[in-house]
Design a protein that fits this description.
about 25% helix, elongated
Length: about 120
C-alpha cells in the first residue's frame, strides 16, 4: 500500500447518487397488464423516478360512479420489482358525498384482489 492510498478516505456507501446514463437505443418498458401509462410517458419519467418505472392503473369495479380503485407499483425497466419498493399499492378513491362503511371498504378490496388474481394468475 503506498502513501497516497493510505490518505484516501474510504468511499461512503451510505449515500445514494443518481447518474445520467445515455443508451444507444430506447429501453423497452415492461408493464403489468393493468398499467394505464403509455411507454413514452414512462420513458419521460425515468429520470424523476431514479430509473424506475411507476405503473398506475384503475381497477374496473361494479360501482364505478362513487368508488374507484387505483393501483400503483414500481418496477425496473424490465418489469422486475423495484428492490427498494416491491409492494403493490391499492388506493380506494371515494367521491366526496359518498361514504363507505368498513364492511363496504373490505368488500371493495376483496373485489380488487379477485381482479388481480384473475389477471395475474389466469
Amino acid at each position: 500500500m503506498n502513501e497516497s492510498s493510505q490518505n484516501t478516505p474510504a468511499a461512503d456507501l451510505s449515500t445514494h447518487q443518481t447518474y445520467l446514463v445515455r443508451t444507444a437505443s430506447r429501453p423497452d418498458i415492461v408493464c403489468p397488464t393493468w398499467c394505464a401509462v403509455d411507454a413514452d410517458q414512462h420513458l419521460d419519467d425515468l429520470a424523476s423516478h431514479d430509473g424506475c418505472v411507476l405503473h398506475v392503473g384503475w381497477v374496473p369495479l361494479a360501482d364505478p360512479v362513487s368508488v374507484k380503485a387505483q393501483l400503483f407499483a414500481a418496477t425496473l425497466v424490465d418489469g422486475t420489482p423495484d428492490p427498494d419498493d416491491q409492494d403493490l399499492r391499492i388506493r380506494l378513491v371515494v367521491e366526496r358525498d359518498h361514504h363507505l362503511r368498513l364492511d363496504e371498504a373490505i368488500e371493495m378490496f376483496a373485489r380488487v384482489t379477485r381482479y388481480l388474481r384473475g389477471i395475474v394468475m389466469p
